[in-house]
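Trying the structure run again after the queue cleared.
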Amino acid sequence: MHVSIFQGIKLVFGKELTAGLRFRAAWAAMFMFALTTLACVSMAMQGGGLDPRLLAALLWVILFFASMAGADRVFADEDTAGTLLALQVYGPAQAVLLGKMLYTFFLLLVLAVFITPLFLMFMDCTVTAPLVLAGTIFLGTWGIAAAGTLIAALTTGASIHSGLFSILMLPVILPVFLPAIFLTTGAFGGDVQLSYLGGMGIYDLILTLGASVLFDYLWFEE
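Done. Tokens:
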């Protein structure tokens, strides 16, 4: 039966969401890491004020490393369960990639929406440009999802999967990570440079298109 790319994306996303809600291991790891880190930082600061740049860096460090606890499992769980071969046989490559990328993006966006208000409350942050902060979080999580999905596919089956994933992930995501810190600094009261938003959007698009091109070769070589 022929399945369109959009139907395939919907089916893969639905499968990932159902599995994630049923087992919740990745969700629990990400949220507990973020909450624990935020609590430790908040207690260490003891209510002391911080520079907006440092606050922005802390927020994105928490979001980035919390995402590492869940984003790397997107293909590893298929490999562990023994369903990767069936997915290769019956799942169109682009539908698999984009469905898993969409799920990862959804997961990271939920994490960001959950942890950011808590961060603002515990760290006593004042947001002067909420739309800039919202756009930065959207583009930042998109970039992490795009890079994470491709690198998770590359490292599937590696004996040191988690360590290799983190090593490969950081240099790829730096062009998203650094502008996100600058923009969040502006949203916390610093100078807002909206050109960074455009740069993040372009890089996210390049990451997504690059992953789409490379994944066809990767998927059928595994």
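The first helix runs from residue 5 to 23. Worth checking whether this holds up in the mutant runs.
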